[in-house]
Prior knowledge:
Structural class: alpha+beta
Order of helices and strands: EEEEEHEHHHEEEHHHHEEE
Helix content: 10-25%
Radius of gyration: 19 Å
Distance between the termini: 41 Å
Largest sheet: 4 strands, mixed
Amino acid sequence: xxxxxKTCHPCAKINLGLNIVSRRADGYHLLESVFYPxxxxxxxxxxxxDGAAGTCTLHLSxxxxxxxxxxxxxxxxxxLLAADFPLPHVEIDLHKAIPSQAGxxxxxxxxxxxxxxxxxxxxxxxxADTLRGYAVRLGADxxxxxxxxxxxxxxxxxxxxxMEQDVxxxxxxxxxxxxxxxxxxxxxxxxxxxxxxxxxxxxxxxxPVTTWRGRLTxxxxxxxxxxxxxxxxxxxRLYDLGAVFALMSGSGSSVFGIFDEEPQMKxxxxxxxxxxxxxx
Length: 280
């Protein structure tokens, strides 16, 4: 009998603005942001295997990941579904191209893709709302990647309002720069003082990109830039290269620039950094 297999390409996301508006009694922070998918992707292949039912094996390639593979979110996503449904053994091949600890949601995207793939591969019939319910149990921003369409995110990042047609980035170019430093999300949040934003990102992103600078902000920059001046320097360098808008994504450490025209850059424009260029 032919074994089932499916390949997909989980994408990264950037934060078009990120405001921390309050802190809940349980310690979680409430935010507002616009999550926007970008064409920087991992590759996930899931194949039905011969092992024991309800088990999986993960094979990693590409960028090196820290930690135990058993703790990888794609494994946790499989186990979450296997706890509720009878599933066969699967072999998982995950090729990493999205940098970790970069504010790009790569691990969350992989997890959501795993939920989607298992659902389709074994004809489970779970609808998008049900899959998002599983996804949020894996991480606050995982639910976004079930559909991976631009969305206004509130709550802890799990309350999503699609706004794909409202963000005028189609046809623009992006340069994403990840320096060789890691920003601890926990540490970044420890320096945040929640506040109501002067400008709500959901309103700003509906305006022309040329109006975003100074209005669309990331609260984490206030503490991350002094601690990691090299990240701040990348943002200024992107503006020097002609970006119409630049911002750190998430709690860092990657920074993106939006360009009207394809940027002409030397290969060593960001020496020592991982650089991704693409069209939105």
